[in-house]
Design a protein that fits this description.
InterPro entries: CHP02243. This protein has 807 residues and is α+β, with helices and mostly antiparallel strands. The protein contains nine helices and 47 strands. Strands 8, 10, 11, 14, 15, 16, 17, 18 and 19 form a nine-stranded antiparallel beta sheet that branches. The longest helix is centred in the N-terminal third of the chain and has 25 residues. It is elongated, with a radius of gyration of 45 Å.
Length: 807
C-alpha cells in the first residue's frame, strides 16, 4: 500500500520500505516543456524552441533553477525521515527526537599483567596506581594505542608466574607396586631388598624384592630427578602416606647354613657332638645337629641372637634386618648390638658377626639352612609422586599458600591435551584451604596439561584512552543552558552495565564541587547539580547545563568549570596479545608489563544504517524488559551486541529465558556479557531466571566449480562469484539457527553475470570429511542431556574456493 508524502508530488507513490522518497515535483525537462507549451499559447509568434533564442534561453535557465530547487527539496524531505536520511547529522537529530543518542563508540578493554622486580635485594612488591598508562608497540600501518589501568594494583613478586604443583606426597595402598625415590644415585639394582613403612600403621612394615629400577633425570617441565622402583607382590598396607623407606643392601646367611647333613656324618662324630651338648641317646636317635635350630630368648629376656657366617663391619646398631625363609612370614628386627666374633660348630669354623636383635617375631620358626638375612639398611629419601592428571574444573590447588584475593582477575594459560595453547582470564571466587587453593568464577574451558599451566596473578583491567584535564570556562548565573565543548574529540566511553552498554569518562567540577551527569535535563529540578553530554556529528563532546528550572544554572565565577576526561575510542584499540608493553610512567618496583590476551570491545561510532534499526527499539522497551522481543531489542541496543535471540527453555521444575548474543565481529567478550546481564537485571523483572551466552560457531567449507562464458575473463568471473558467495554468507547477514542450503549457494553463483553453469563440489562442516551436503543445519538454544543450557548455533563460512571449469 502506497502512502503519499505530505507536500510531495501528486500521484507519486511512496510504498513502505523504500530506501528513498520520490518527492520531486518537476525536472528540468518537464519544466522547460511546460514553459514552452505555455509560451506557445500566449505568444503564437514565438515559433522557435532553440536555446539560441534569448526568450527560450531564459526559460531554460529558470527550468534549471526549478530542477535544482526540486532536487534539494527532495533531499531535504528524505532527510526528515529516519529510514531515508543519509546525513549523519539528520540521523542524529531524528534519533534524539525519540530520546535516542547515537552510540559514540567504545574504548577497547584489556587485561594487563605486571611483572614485579624479583632480583635479590628487591622489595618484592609494588603499587600500580589507577590510571597508569601503558602504550602499545604499533605494527605496520598502525598507530600506538594508550591504555590506562582501571584500578589500583597491589603487585607481589610471587604472583608474577604461579605454577601448579607437579608432584604430591606418595600414598601406598594394598595394591601398590611402584614407589618414587628422590635422586638418581640410590645405588639400587633389581634384586635388592626394600623395607617400607606407612603412616597409618607405624608398626607395620613390608619387605619387597625389587623387580625394576628406573632412574629418571630432570625433565623439561622442571620435575626433579627421581628413581622409580617396582616389585611384583602387592604391598598389602592400609592407604596412607609413606613415612620411611630403607634399602637392605646386604644379603647374608646364618652361620651353619652350609653344615654337612647330620645323617651322613660318622657315628663317632655324632656321638662326640651329642656328648659335648650333654644330650643322651644313640646317634641313630638324633636327626639334626645339636643346637642347630634357632632358639627364642626366654620370656622377659633380651631379644634373640644370631650369628652371620662372615664378618660384616658395616652392620651397625640401630639398623634394620629382615629374615626370610620359604613358607614363613618375613620378620623385621632392629639390630641392638653387632660384634665381630668367631664360631666353631657343625664341623665348621668361621669368622662371624654376632647380632643381638629387637623384635616381636620368633626366630625359632626360621630354618638355619634356608633363611636369608637382608641387612645393612640405608634410609632413602621418598620423592613426591608425579601429578600427571590434567587440570580441569574451577578449583586450582597450589603447593604453597598464595596471597591472592577473592574478586581479583587472574590469567590462566597452558596447552590443551592436544597441544593447543590457550589463555583465559578468570575472576577468583574464593581463596580456600589457608591460601593453598582458589576457586575460579567458571570452570576451565579445556582440560590443560598440568606441566604447562601458568597463572599470572598481578593482573588488572585497563581500557584504551588517554587522560586529560582542562578548564572548560566560566560560569554565568544569569545565563541558561550554558554549553562547553571539550577541546579534544573522541571522548572515551568504556563498557558499563547501563542500558546503552557504555558510559563516558567525563567528570565535571564547578568551584571544586563535582556535578553529576544525567541522560536528560527534563526530569531534573532547579537545584540538581547535573549536566548532559551531547556528542556532535564531528565527534566533539559538549556539556550542557540547566536553566534553573530543569537543572541548576552554573554559578558565576572566573574559569570555575573544570573537566577531567579521557580521549580515544574505536576498533584501533583492539591490539593483539603482547602488544601493550611500553610503560609511559614506570611504577617503582615494576619490571615489565604485557597483555596476555588481545584487547577487545573497541567499536566505532554508530553508523546511520545501524541507527535505523536500533533507534526504534528504544520505544519498544521504554526502560522495561519483559517479553522475548523486549530482551532481543534491549540486547541489540547494547553496545558491543549485534545479534540476539531469546528462547524459553523448559527444564523441570521451572522454565527460564535464555538469550544468545553475538558481537559485530564474532563472539561476545565475557566482560560485555557481565555488563549486559547486570543491565538486564536492573531493567527486567525481579527474580527472573536468565541464561545468557555467546553463540556457538559452526564453521563450514564451501567450494563451487563454475563454467564462465567464452567471452568473459575467467579470473574476473570467478572473483565475482567468490565475492557474491562471501557476501551471502558474511557474518553480518547470518542469523542464529539459520541453515545453509546447496540450492542457495548454486543460485547465487549462477546469478553472477558471465556464469554459464555452476556446480557445488564441497559443502560440509569444517573438520568433517569432505562431502556435498544438500543442507547444513544450525540449532537454536536448547537443553543438553544433563539439563545445561546450550546457546544457539551460527553457521559461519570459514573456507571458500571457486574453481573454473574448462568445458
Amino acid at each position: 500500500m502506497s502512502t503519499p508524502v505530505p507536500g510531495g508530488a501528486p500521484g507519486v507513490p511512496n510504498p513502505p520500505g523504500r530506501p528513498a522518497l520520490s518527492y520531486r515535483i518537476t525536472t528540468h525537462g518537464d519544466t522547460l516543456a511546460r514553459s514552452l507549451a505555455e509560451v506557445s499559447q500566449r505568444l503564437p509568434g514565438l515559433t522557435t524552441h532553440s536555446t539560441d533564442d534569448p526568450a527560450v534561453a531564459l526559460l531554460d535557465a529558470w527550468a534549471s533553477v526549478a530542477d535544482i530547487v526540486a532536487f534539494y527539496q527532495e533531499r531535504i524531505a528524505n532527510e526528515g525521515f529516519l529510514r531515508t536520511a543519509t546525513e549523519r547529522r539528520s540521523v542524529l537529530e531524528l534519533a534524539r527526537s525519540i530520546g535516542y543518542e547515537l552510540r559514540p563508540g567504545a574504548a577497547a578493554s584489556a587485561y594487563l599483567s605486571f611483572t614485579v622486580e624479583d632480583t635479590p635485594g628487591a622489595p618484592g612488591h609494588a603499587v600500580v596506581p589507577a590510571g597508569t598508562p601503558v602504550q602499545s608497540i604499533p605494527g605496520q600501518g598502525e598507530l600506538p594505542q594508550t591504555f590506562e589501568t582501571a584500578a589500583e594494583l597491589q603487585a607481589v613478586a610471587e604472583h608474577n608466574a604461579i605454577r601448579l604443583p607437579l608432584r604430591e606426597p606418595q600414598w601406598v595402598t594394598s595394591n601398590t607396586t611402584v614407589l618414587h625415590l628422590a635422586g638418581t644415585t640410590t645405588g639400587l639394582r633389581p634384586g635388592d631388598g626394600l623395607l617400607i613403612r606407612s603412616a597409618m600403621q607405624p608398626e607395620a612394615w613390608r619387605f619387597r624384592i625389587l623387580h625394576t629400577v628406573n632412574p629418571l633425570p630432570t625433565d623439561p617441565a622442571g620435575r626433579p630427578p627421581i628413581t622409580v622402583v617396582s616389585w611384583e607382590q602387592h604391598l598389602d598396607l592400609a592407604p596412607s602416606q609413606v613415612i620411611e623407606v630403607h634399602a637392605l643392601r646386604l644379603r647374608a646367611s646364618i652361620f651353619g647354613h652350609n653344615a654337612p647333613d647330620w645323617r651322613t656324618m660318622p657315628a663317632s662324630v655324632r656321638e662326640s657332638y651329642l656328648a659335648a651338648a650333654g644330650q643322651g641317646g644313640t646317634p641313630a636317635s638324633a636327626t639334626q645337629w645339636p643346637r642347630f635350630a634357632l632358639t627364642d630368648p626366654p620370656e622377659g629376656a633380651d631379644g634373640p641372637v644370631i650369628d652371620l657366617d662372615a664378618a660384616h663391619p658395616a652392620l651397625l646398631p640401630g639398623s634394620w634386618l629382615v629374615l626370610r625363609a620359604p613358607g614363613v612370614r618375613d620378620e623385621v628386627y632392629q639390630v641392638v648390638a653387632a660384634d665381630q666374633s668367631a664360631a666353631a660348630d657343625f664341623t665348621l669354623t668361621s669368622t662371624t658377626t654376632r647380632l643381638r636383635l629387637r623384635g616381636t617375631g620368633k626366630v625359632s620358626q626360621f630354618d638355619r639352612r634356608a633363611t636369608v638375612v637382608h641387612a645393612q639398611s640405608e634410609q632413602l629419601e621418598v620423592a613426591d609422586e608425579p601429578l600427571n592428571t590434567p587440570v580441569t574444573g574451577n578449583t586450582l590447588r597450589f603447593e604453597y599458600p598464595v596471597t591472592l584475593q577473592a574478586g581479583a582477575p587472574i590469567v590462566v594459560t597452558g596447552t590443551t591435551l592436544v597441544g593447543v595453547q590457550t589463555t583465559a582470564v578468570h575472576l577468583i571466587d574464593a581463596v580456600t584451604d589457608a591460601g593453598t587453593s582458589i576457586v575460579l568464577d567458571r570452570p576451565l574451558e579445556h582440560p590443560l596439561n598440568r606441566a604447562s599451566v601458568l597463572l599470572l596473578g598481578n593482573v588488572v583491567a585497563a581500557t584504551a584512552g588517554q587522560s586529560t584535564e582542562e578548564v572548560l570556562g566560566s560560569g554565568d548565573g544569569r545565563a541558561t543552558h550554558q554549553r562547553f565543548t571539550l577541546l579534544h574529540k573522541d571522548l572515551t566511553h568504556v563498557p558499563a552495565p547501563t542500558a546503552s552498554g557504555v558510559r563516558d569518562t567525563l567528570a565535571v567540577q564547578v568551584d571544586g564541587v563535582t556535578w553529576t551527569e544525567a541522560s536528560s535535563l527534563f526530569p531534573l529540578g532547579p537545584h540538581d547539580r547535573s549536566y548532559v553530554v551531547r556528542i556532535q556529528d564531528d565527534a566533539t563532546a559538549t556539556a550542557v547545563f540547566g536553566d534553573g528550572e530543569r537543572g541548576a544554572r552554573l554559578p558565576s565565577g572566573q574559569e570555575n568549570v573544570h573537566a577531567t576526561y579521557r580521549t580515544g575510542i574505536g576498533p584501533e584499540g583492539n591490539v593483539g596479545a603482547g602488544s601493550l608493553s611500553l610503560l609511559v610512567k614506570r611504577p617503582l618496583g615494576i619490571r615489565a608489563v604485557s597483555n596476555p590476551l588481545a584487547a577487545t570491545g573497541g567499536t566505532a561510532p554508530e553508523r546511520p544504517d545501524d541507527v535505523r534499526t536500533r533507534a526504534p527499539l528504544t520505544v519498544r522497551t521504554f526502560g522495561r524488559v519483559v517479553s522475548l522481543d523486549d530482551h532481543e531489542a534491549f540486547a541489540r541496543n547494547f553496545t558491543g551486541i549485534a545479534k540476539a535471540r531469546a528462547t524459553v527453555l523448559s527444564p523441570a521444575p521451572m522454565p527460564f529465558l535464555h538469550l544468545t548474543v553475538a558481537a559485530p565481529d564474532g563472539a561476545v567478550p565475557d566482560d560485555t556479557l557481565t555488563d549486559l546481564r547486570a543491565a538486564l537485571e536492573a531493567d527486567g523483572l525481579p527474580g527472573r531466571r536468565l541464561g545468557l551466552d555467546s553463540y556457538l560457531e559452526l564453521p563450514f567449507t564451501l567450494a563451487v566449480a563454475i563454467l564462465p562464458a567464452p567471452d568473459r575473463d575467467p579470473d574476473t568471473v570467478s572473483g565475482a562469484v567468490e565475492h557474491a558467495l562471501a557476501q551471502l554468507y558474511s557474518f553480518e547477514r547470518r542469523d542464529f539457527a539459520q541453515p545453509v542450503t546447496a540450492a542457495e549457494a548454486i543460485a547465487t553463483a549462477q546469478r553472477v553475470p558471465g556464469v554459464v553453469a555452476a556446480n557445488l563440489t564441497a559443502l560440509h562442516l569444517t573438520g568433517e570429511p569432505a562431502a556435498v551436503a544438500s543442507l547444513l543445519l544450525a540449532r537454536g538454544a536448547r537443553l543438553d542431556a544433563g539439563g545445561t543450557a546450550v546457546p544457539a548455533e551460527l553457521l559461519v563460512l570459514k573456507g571458500l574456493s571457486v574453481q573454473v571449469m574448462t568445458s
